[in-house]
Design a protein that fits this description.
The chain contains 3 helices and 6 strands. It is α+β, with helices and mostly antiparallel strands. A hairpin with a 5-residue loop joins strand 4 and strand 5. The model has no long low-confidence stretch (mean pLDDT 91).
């Protein structure tokens, strides 16, 4: 694990998202993202609200991308716990796993790729979950 400054990371992420300079991956390798969106019937507006609601205390870690050809990328992982309406209008407390890639573009607003946005598969310990 490489230590990073969560505030700086989050500031870049939120600024890009607020300017609609981001995308949430929904390709065949990201079925968990799709299933999360469907399970809770979330639209783009709700997903954006979730992303903008992340705090520094939700920061977990920054890692190098392990995929061949992408090893130079730094991936930033956050694990917020949110209240979300599930089936039968029951409110569930759910911890999310959100992984970002910040694509830095010279002289322009950074572009953020939300690689993962789904329920955490196991409990993740970050300040907000303690």
């Amino acid at each position: 694990m490489v230590l990073e400054n969560p505030k700086e990371i989050l500031d870049k992420i939120k600024y890009s998202i607020s300017k609609d300079n981001y995308q949430i991956e929904n390709n065949k390798n990201r079925k968990d993202n799709y299933n999360f969106k469907r399970k809770y019937e979330l639209g783009d507006k709700e997903l954006k609200t979730i992303l903008l609601g992340i705090t520094e205390d939700d920061y977990y870690e920054t890692v190098n991308n392990y995929k061949k050809g992408y090893e130079h990328e730094r991936l930033h992982i956050f694990a917020p716990t949110i209240n979300i309406e599930g089936s039968e209008e029951k409110v569930n407390k759910v911890q999310l796993y959100i992984k970002f890639n910040i694509v830095e573009i010279k002289e322009k607003t950074d572009y953020v790729i939300v690689i993962s946005l789904h329920e955490a598969k196991k409990p993740i310990k970050c300040k907000s979950s303690l």
